[in-house]
Amino acid sequence: FENILSEARKYALNLTIAHQYIGQLIPQVQHAVLGNTGSLICFRVGGEDAVKLKPEFEPLFGVKDMINLAVGEIYIKMTIDGESYDPFSAETLRVLPPTHVSYRKEIMEASRRKFSISKDDAAKLIAEEEATIIRSAEEKAIIEGKAKRKEKEKNGKKDENVDSGLESPDEKSGSRPKSVGTSQEAEPMI
Question: Where are the alpha helices (DSSP H) in 43-176?
């Protein structure tokens, strides 16, 4: 990059380099920029940058001058047709109000036409959606109720078998079911 800057004038290369502070540039680039710059514009800067820029603007402007610039005030050092001129102060143009009329109302109206509906239509849509939700909830309750009745009916038949005196085959023979497991005791032999 430093080589490009040193050859820039030969090739009529124009660059606009804007930084928040000079410390963002590595030292080699700082020296190349300040050594090969034709026109230099300085807004209010911090102390470190003012010290680095002082040689460019002295004897007319010092470190304190650059630090104390007001908003919109600048110091300029220009080179015109290869000749360097003394630095001078100036003020930037204030931001002018927009020359065109605001399109805010037109944009809002276009958005309303494209993306909105009337209040009555919205109320109808909401009512229809609520009715669908209520119907769905009622249908769900009916389905769940039928499932519960079937389950009760199944459980009711099992209970009827017990209540009606039906006995299991083991109960009829009078034998007890053998317990299953590894901790059975052996029957004594006589």
Answer: 47-57, 63-67, 104-115, 119-163, 169-173
